[in-house]
Amino acid sequence: MTATTKFELKLGAATREAFGKTLALIARTNPDIVVCDADLSKSTNTHFFAKEFPDRFFFCGIAESNMVALGAGLAYAGKIQFVSSFAAFVMNKGFGQLRVPVAGGCRGCSTGAAVVRKRRAQYPARPGNQAA
Fold it and tell me: The CATH number of the domain where 83 resides is what?
């Protein structure tokens, strides 16, 4: 059975097409926008951004966990990053990378930054001696 409404329903662009085109559009006015892509630029339509801004497009291959870490580093450096992949891949592969090194670890886990902070607290800098 077909539903009828009093409104005319118009279909717009697919969500992923609108996403890709909008990224390229807003990047024209903001040079801090970057995109990290997991070999899915044709599917996620980030190829529009890549074509217009190849110097701000980071191809990460099928390595979503590394892509998430790269995106976190770019955000830390002041960039507005869009990490683009399928949700199933980012959530399953990228979550561990985000949870441990980016968010500060878990109980019993150490990250590089945590180790440095601990060492600096144990061995404070002294005159003529560099802190680790």
Answer: 3.40.50.970
Domain around 77 = 15-106
In a domain, 131, yes or no: no
The letter for the amino acid at 128 is G
Burial class (CB in 10 A: 0-12, 13-18, 19+), 105: middle
Name the token pair of 72. Answer: 């976190």
User: Is 8 a residue of the active site?
Assistant: no
How confident is the model over 72-111, as pLDDT tens digits?
889 889 999 999 988 888 777 766 666 655 555 455 544 4
The catalytically annotated residue of 8, 17, 52, 64 is: 64
